[in-house]
Specification:
163 residues; mainly alpha
Length: 163
Amino acid sequence: MSLFQICQVIQESEIGTAIRESTWVFPIIETIHVLGAALSVGLILCLDLRLTGLGMGRIPAAQLMHRLKPWYLTGFAVMMLSGALLFWSEAAKLYDSFTFRMKVLFLVLAGLNALIFEIVYTRRIAGFETEGTPAGATVVGWCSLAFWAAVIGFGRWTAYGLS
């Protein structure tokens, strides 16, 4: 079975059809998806601005990350779960969508970027106040800003059928 055929089976399942054909379910899930993205990406933006030196300079990076992390991770989980349900309802359609593929690519890049930050810099984040923000952490912040802008842009582009 090809990947496209798997996507067709997913989309034509009872759950996929119910989500897609419901007057209320698809728009509610999409709203939850956008709210989850707003929570997650909005708070990640605060940390990225701190890392790049563009904002939040008075708040220690470690304190900012400690306070925001549970919230942006919750938003991320909500965004991913609701996104999976949206995909379930339109898997075959999204299979051929260039904009959806670009969204997923930049989502993966944003995840890898966050993983690099977590592995390399999280243990040392308290030292950013005395030693300064390492250049690599600043690059991670800039990359995060670019990747999340691309995820949101391609996500909106996909939602409006401009694939």
